[in-house]
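Worked problem 6 (solution included).
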Amino acid sequence: MIGKKLLRLSIVIFTLMLVVGIFTIGYAQRKAIGPEPQKITATLSANPEQYVGTCPVVINFKAKITATQPSKVQYKFIRSDGVHSPVETLNFTAYGAQEVMDTWTLGGSGLPKYSGWEAIQIVYPMDVRSDKASFSIKCRDDGPQQVTQPGLQQGKLPDLVVEDITLGSDCRVVVKVRNLGPGYIPDETWMTHKPESSSVYLTVNGKGWGGETIWKFDPNKSLQYPGGLAVYESDLKITGTATIKATVDHTKQIKETNYTNNERTTRLTCKAEVAQPAEIKEDCDSFNPATLRITKILGNWKIVDGNHWLFDFATKKSEADRGLSIIKNYRMNQLCFVGRPGPSFQYILVSGASPAGGTQGEDCVKFNPDNTTVASIQGRWKIVDGNYWMFDFGNRELEARQSLAIIKKYGFTYSCFVGRPDPSFRYLHK
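Solution. The predicted structure is:
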């Protein structure tokens, strides 16, 4: 009897030890596995996705970035025309999502139709790209119509709009006006300029500008026809910061389809050009073109020098091969930045000098460094060559001016791409 009781007790003790052991092993396994790895996702939508109407039109992009752990997340918007926004930063203090937005204004007499896309690219702490948010536009009028008699319009009216207000040379106020149509402006309303019947009327900080030059309508009458555009550079110069309101057809001398878009108000800041210093402070990393190689890291093809990766081509292996070939042909050995971390501008040198001479099969756009300037266009600082804007710096004016000084210092005359649209590699040479 006693022996049976001892046997039952032994079985009970063994069972308890087994359960405790299993629990302990399971706990140890869970502890060894640790927390789930960070996961970051991004989604983006375009509004409107399809547009038919008067142009230009603003396409609004709304993005949502989700992070599963507290972290700093850096991102940029990328577009089908090869343009990308400056890198911006979000701080996540816990699991959750944050929304960010971007806009793209396009369309007009020079671009009556367009199909494109925008996406959001996570650049830190990992490489993640959203799906492309596609859209298409079709402008109601494809350009100015040659009209010889106003009666042929059969009641169609023009629609004048102040499209933009910027600063031109010597901080003069520049106003861009467009006739969104579909109607024609009759000759009899091509007015003599005077303040009470001006085509464009300016106020500065809420007060009417008392300058002598308040323009009559465009002398070459390009604005007279549907889709026509006129750019007026006034004699009004501002210093510091001022609020400028421009009104087209101030006294409503022209019958229009819409008067609500006849004025625009913009806050402009005039800053003197930053003089190019005798020595430009540069931020460059050296590498050896002979030891560069292409490798795949976390699913993306990269050009690396030892354990340091220099250029990321995502899934585009052929573009990585092309990029490496270009680097070796020019013998590039310095990668330079403006504005780290999250640089707004990058360039590559050959032992402290510009790459030169060209290489076969390049995709390049030529520009004149003597004509390049920094301009504020729709609130974003850009480096432009005439009407062609080359680099977008967002709100980073100082970095735009530093980059322009670098372009002039090295005499770059070509801006080159690998993989347009949405190039994976860009460089400059002369």
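Discussion: DSSP finds three helices and 28 strands in the chain.
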